[in-house]
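Bench notes, bay 3.
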Amino acid sequence: MKIAISSDHGGNTLRKEIMGLLEELGFEYEDFGPKDNSSVDYPDYAQPVSEGVAAGKFDKGILICGTGIGMSIAANKVKGIRCALVHDVFSAKATRCHNDSNIIAMGERVIGAGLAREIVAAWLQTDFEGGRHERRIEKITAIEAQN
């Protein structure tokens, strides 16, 4: 599995923590930055991750900003992306099981590194259940096709 990861300046520290986790778990990843803590605009960092996941270059993506809100909004503008804003393990698992999310967003100013590591590990290790949930994903895809 190949993961795309990025943040803005508000999520830079947590992004580095999560990259360490990905290495520990043996996942291949590509870091889309930023390189330092200078102020940047989150859409500029959400877009390449989202487009890479939507195009199939990456299996999943992880986006981090101060709250996770801006990143999730920007990511969900890309056709084919189901980005979930998560701040707890239950939601991380549920969004994989029920929504087949392909990107998660988190907020560095909302959760600590320990919880973020648990969230990412749970999200990466949880499979989509399919079944009745597949019908719902198809309806989301149909909405995207109308726009």
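Next record in the batch:
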Amino acid sequence: MKELAELRRIVDGQKTVSTKRLKPLLDEIQRSYIQTANKVKSQKETIKKINTNYSVANSKAARLSVHVQTHEELKKAHSELKAKHKEVTKELHQFKYNRKHV
């Protein structure tokens, strides 16, 4: 930033400077600081949005993981239930067959 460099040169040289010459330099430096602050603020908001989106995505992934786990458990329970049903049906047929032949 050339204005700041010029201001530093003036201060280092300890020259007497008119307000007319100094004021535009200080105004330009102030504008530059404001622009930088606005950029930092914008970047902060962008980072905050990214973090929020990341958090939401993590939350959805966790819920999906629970859903998949629950689905797997339901499939396993269903398979076990089908096996028990098959076993009980077999026993029932066996009971009916033994009853007829007694």
